[in-house]
Every structure is written in C-alpha cells, then in structure tokens.
C-alpha cells in the first residue's frame, strides 16, 4: 500500500475531487443565496472591536463577493496573433506551436461554456428544490393555523349550557336528509328487484331443461336407457382419458372462458342476461344499432 492511499482511509481506487474550472463565481448572488447569507448569524456585536490582520481591522459585514462572468473570461483568453491560414505559411515547428496554442484557447473557451451550462442546470435544480420547500412550509403553516382555529372553536362549558351540545338541523338540512333517505331506500329496493329479476331470468333459462309432462318424461327415459347409453360410455371414457392426461387444464380454461364471455356480454350461460333485456325494452340497443349503421354508411 502506497503512502498516497492513506489520505483516502487506506482505500485504493478512489479518485480525488475534480478541480473547479472557475475559481470565482460567474454571477452575482441570487435571492435564495442572499436570504441564506442574511440568515446566517455572523459578525461581532456592537462595541466589540474586530480583530486585526496585517494591521487592518476586519469588516463587520461580509463584503459582497466578487464575480467574473464567462464573457469576461472568454475575452481574456489569449489567442495566437494570426489566423489558421496565416499559420500554414510558417515553418513546421512554429506552425505546430501556434496551432497548439490556438486549439488550447478554443478548448478552454468550450470548457467555459459547458461549465456555464452545467452551473445553470444546478441553479435551476436548487431553485426547484427551494420552491418545493417553501410550498411544504406554507402547507405546514396552513395546517397549523387550521388546527389552532379548531382548538379555538371548541365549545366551552358555558356555550354548551346555553346552546346545547348538539346543533339542531336547519329546515334545508332536514329536507336534504329526507331526500337522501328516500333515495337510499329506493336504491335498495331497485337493487333487490334486480336481484329477483336476475334469479327469475336464470330460472326461465333453466326451465327449458325441466320435465313437465308425461311425454317429456317418457322421451327422457327412452333417450337415457336406449339412445344415450353408448354415447355416455364413450363420453365417460374420453373424459377419464382427458382428466388423467397431462392436458387436463383445458377443462378449467374452457369453463373460465365461458364465465368471462358471460360476464363481458352480460349473458347467462350463453343466453340473454338482464342488462340485455333492459336495453331491448328501453330501446337503447336499437338506438345503438341505428347509430352504428349510420356511422358506417357515412364512412363508406
């Protein structure tokens, strides 16, 4: 381990801090920096003499910082006294020396401009952070004032004895409460009726499979014991084969697909659901169909 590594805590591979391109500021202090400068408690009290350095008393106030703009820095860059065309007429060594000096000046100018852009971005970020902090502080002050006003508006014992603990509703508030209760009651009744209608519709769709007459019973017995026996055996064999095979997940997928289709289309086992019937009775479905046909004809 070399001696230079000890400066960084015995850790190698750590680069030193980059040297700043501008030794002095390139702009005057903005409002945020001036506020921070005023907020810092520094200096000497009145009547207390300031110390001397080189026989001169230190100023009580911090003098404004000196700055050099980028334009002034660029003006002080020393370029060669001739252009690139004139350099081509010089001897090789002298020409190369002048060109190196010229390109050094150009690179320095470019570095100044790039550093100026970087510092401007940093200033914008600092400004945005400062604005967010001010917004948070304002919100905190508003919440604190609201809390203090709530505490100040708490009822006292005298006020409770005089006006009562509960405020009576105004006639407008009573009427509004009455209408809200009526709306809630009717909404509940409508929901119950829709549930009953949904169940009745499911029963209606299922009624097609019910046996209600002797003829239907005889036909069902005949089909069960005479016609469908062979179909049942083959279907049972195919179902068992599919269940015990590796691709048994298709059954679940098929059931889920049917459920999703019913949920999207508002159907009940592939048959019209309550919402579709309501659309037909109200004329919404026919209106939508006409509008779609009209739009299609206009596009054509």
Automatic annotation (TrEMBL):
It comes from the Eukaryota. InterPro entries: mS26_fungi (IPR058940). It holds the Pfam family mS26. Residues 37-63 are annotated as: Disordered. This is PET123.
